[in-house]
Amino acid sequence: MSPSLKDKIAQVFDEPGCEHNQTKDEKARKKGCTKQLTPGAAAGGCAFDGAKIALQPIVDVAHLVHGPIACEGNSWDNRHSASSGSQLYRTGFTTDINELDVIYGAEKRLFKAIRQILDRQDPAAVFVYQTCVTGLIGDDIEAVCKRASEKFGKPVIPVNAPGFAGPKNLGNKLGAEALLDHVIGTVEPERMTAYDINIIGEYNLSGELWQVKPLLDALGIRVLSCISGDGRYREIAGAHRARANMMVCSKSMINVATRMQQRWGIPFFEGSFYGISDMSTTLRDIARLLVEQGADPELQKRTEALIAVEEARAWERIRAYRQRLAGKKVLLITGGVKSWSVVAALQEAGLEVVGTSVKKSTRADKEKIKEIMGDDAHMIDDLSPREMYAMLRDARADIMLSGGRSQFVALKARMPWMDINQERHHAFAGYEGMVTMIAEIDKALFNPVWQQVKAPAPWEETETAALPA
User: Fold this and answer.
1) CA–CA distance from 260 to each of 9, 157, 428, 454 (Å)?
2) Structural domain total, the chain
3) Cα–chain center distance at 251
4) Which residues constitute the domain of residue 371?
5) Measured between alpha carbons, how far is residue 152 from residues 60, 118, 121, 179, 300 in Å?
6) What span, in angstroms and rounded, lies between the C-alpha atoms of 406 and 417?
7) What is the pTM of this model?
8) Which of residues 365 and 48 earns the better pLDDT score?
9) CA 351, 356, 357: angle at the middle one, nearest 5?
10) What is the pLDDT of residues 202-230, one digit of tens each?
11) Which of 58, 76, 140, 303 has CB 3.0 to 4.6 Å from 231, enough for a Cys bridge?
12) What is the mean pLDDT of residues 148-164?
């Protein structure tokens, strides 16, 4: 591991936005909260994976993986992060190093690959990702990127997050550090207003950003940049001129918000786009911060008027669902901001959350869960598939909401399941997204297929009837 990478990891761990980290002494703080993994032991995603997940939604840049072809994988439907323009981010680029490159080094191959991408694709920039193999053989991607940028006149950004550096969440932050070091603050926006904000840690999964943006447009609030869903390189490069930042997922990119506050004095808050009440609170917080930064106080009155209209409309649309879903129990297996923001949305629909996972949640996330669910909140650090199956089989939950990797546990238990994580095909953000989420849960719970799969098979009924009395 190069000294620069060690220094960068130490900087990421020295996070002023983490209350838990600030209670330690200086020596313990530098060690961080994440146990470093050995090569091959990064179960659940490595640092490279985390960095690429965090940055790939920037749609008009080429994402070049410097390593074996297996590290690139399939980029086409990565996390269902949608774009309103360029589709370049969905194309996978890799140097595809071989055995000779491992022996002699692959820096020349990387330089040639950058040149080919710039000639054929003409992207706004090229992001180059370090991987375990090229990191171990000592390829200096920062030097190659600097040389390429000088020669070709286009930004070439090194993302030094090889897989052996640690788990996926650390990779999220290392990817964010690449933006802070090489992108944010390098371009001045064409125009600036008193109503400019950045949205950080939002990936526009299934177009969720597009359900929130019309609300902001109606208030005259401009999203200067989204980091990184449906993002554009120049927008992110000029993000330092925003008046306020909204942090959506602090688990992945809190370092962007805190560093921008330190460098440019941009205040931030953490909010949620899930659920009626939380969406309204988020709009109020954005308006409040902008007014504190110099926007017209009339903005807060307009915000309250918009909230009144949208809340009344949303409550009316979910009224019938609330009657059908009242008392139904949900097991929520997710993490991060969704561990508490989705809980609030489910409770608004009349559902009872019997447990929510907190394996990928911050201390602040856990505190918010306690606020929403009370002191008896059932927070699950790590639920094994066997325990999930037992909960569903014993009818302690009527439906499980989780990512795709857990769906087979629910199907084996013959219980309803719905995807709540990034692979889903429906957008659940904003007032409109709340209605969509409740409608999808209703469809899953009351699908007649569950009555059929729980009934005895025809041959089992025949065998039972044939038994002597």
Assistant:
1) 18, 19, 28, 54
2) 3
3) 9
4) 326-424
5) 17, 8, 13, 20, 47
6) 9
7) 0.87
8) 48
9) 160
10) 999 889 999 999 999 999 999 999 999 99
11) 58
12) 96
| 351 Cα distance to chain centroid | 25
Final residue in a domain of this structure, among 152, 182, 212: 182
Quick check: is 410 in a domain?
yes
Q: Are residues 10 and 69 in the same domain?
A: yes
Q: Distance between alpha carbon 140 and the CA centroid of its chain, in Å?
A: 29
Q: Considering the domain boundaries, does residue 449 fall inside one?
A: no
Residue 47 sits in a domain whose CATH number is 3.40.50.1980
Residue with tokens 């931030």, as numbered in its chain: 268
- 460, with CB counted inside 10 A (0-12, 13-18, 19+), is exposed
**Do the domain assignments include residue 267?**
yes
Sequence letter at residue 149: S
Residues 27 and 162 in one domain: yes
